[in-house]
Design goal:
It is built from 17 helices and six strands. By secondary structure, it is mainly alpha-helical. It has a two-stranded antiparallel ribbon. The chain has a two-stranded antiparallel sheet with strand order 3-4. A two-stranded antiparallel sheet has the order 5-6.
């Protein structure tokens, strides 16, 4: 077992900074070994672009459904899929806003990652919360720390967790974010940092609502920025949602006095190991069908074509005029850009005449 060392931190004169309390157990080490093995397969698999687009789109769908479902959203996976395709579904407006808000958060995380930043700021966390709760909370609550006391209650109305007072939230968040960007955090295994951040954020409970979704989005952002999930295939939320009682029970294993998060990290790393294993298996299943690759060879796409595919992961359709505007190109050039995507059956054409549009095949 390896204990986190508090004394070194205090000797460096930064004792006010948040410092996680945990022990690296045999279970955590075993999970990390499984995670590393799966990740190696995922990063080195010779995937065709079509497969990568499919896996990324599935990850977005799973995260949007499961992360909101954990907190009581009533939309099914199929309804979420239809909503993301732009279809009108009969459902509560709040449920639809939660799902669409989470997709906006995932797009925002992608944008942050593309900038190559290595630091997470308070403004980014506030923006993630604002996108998560836009149209659900008031403008003074969405993207702003709470100014009231809150409590986590169970189905019987009993208080299961009492977060810190509202007056403490700004300083607690400042200390937490300082640690998140510290040398100590950067030297820790990425999955542990993600799990620590998830718990500490939920413990502080900085907002009146949407804390769980924002915590899970923050955990996802950490994995992405630190190069863990560079292909964006990974979705941990489905593991949480499969057994919500266990998820909440794991969060509640932490003693409020010592705030020792060892058991939580054992659960968290187990979830990452299981979810990564599922992605690995999906990739291995796809890689079995070598005939596609042998018949067509590897498909090489340029930056414009990859950007079109990425755009269609979260938007149901695209038109020629939208492609022209996206790249400031002529209609003929837009058509030439589309041609390889259509020939390799990455996209399909829909509609007729001026109403023609394109969607993922």
């Amino acid at each position: 077992m390896v204990n986190s060392d508090i004394s070194n931190h205090e000797k460096q004169g930064v004792s006010n900074m948040y410092r996680p309390n945990f022990t690296i157990t045999k279970e955590i080490l075993n999970h990390i070994a499984e995670i590393s093995a799966s990740r190696e397969v995922i990063l080195n698999a010779p995937l065709l672009p079509k497969w990568e687009v499919k896996l990324r789109k599935e990850a977005i769908l799973k995260m949007a459904h499961h992360s909101t479902s954990i907190e009581g959203n009533r939309l099914t996976m199929e309804e979420v899929n239809r909503l993301l395709r732009g279809e009108d579904i009969a459902a509560w407006e709040k449920d639809k806003k939660e799902v669409l808000g989470y997709v906006k958060v995932l797009e925002y995380i992608d944008n942050i990652g593309e900038k190559g930043v290595d630091k997470i700021t308070e403004d980014e966390i506030l923006e993630i919360h604002r996108l998560n709760t836009q149209g659900i909370l008031t403008d003074s609550e969405a993207g702003h720390y709470r100014e009231v006391e809150v409590a986590v209650v169970n189905g019987l109305g009993r208080v299961t967790f009492q977060p810190p007072e509202a007056s403490q939230v700004p300083s607690l968040m400042n200390d937490f974010i300082a640690w998140l960007n510290s040398k100590e955090a950067k030297e820790l295994y990425t999955v542990l940092v993600s799990g620590i951040a998830h718990y500490e954020f939920v413990r502080i409970h900085p907002f009146v609502d949407g804390n769980g979704r924002t915590a899970r989005a923050l955990a996802t952002l950490i994995l992405y920025l630190r190069g863990f999930d560079t292909k964006r295939f990974f979705a941990l939320d489905d593991y949480y949602n499969e057994d919500r009682r266990r998820y909440y029970a794991a969060l509640q294993t932490v003693d409020p006095q010592t705030i020792n998060i060892t058991q939580w990290l054992e659960y968290f790393t187990e979830g990452v190991a299981v979810s990564m294993g599922r992605v690995k298996q999906a990739i291995l299943d796809m890689s079995v069908d070598w005939r596609l690759k042998e018949q067509r060879g590897q498909i090489y796409l340029n930056d414009r074509q990859m950007k079109i595919l990425k755009y269609l992961q979260t938007t149901p359709r695209i038109t020629i005029s939208e492609i022209q505007k996206m790249f400031d190109i002529s209609r003929d050039t837009a058509n030439r850009t589309l041609k390889p995507l259509l020939e390799n059956k990455l996209l399909k054409r829909r509609g007729k005449g001026r109403a023609i549009y394109y969607e993922l095949a």
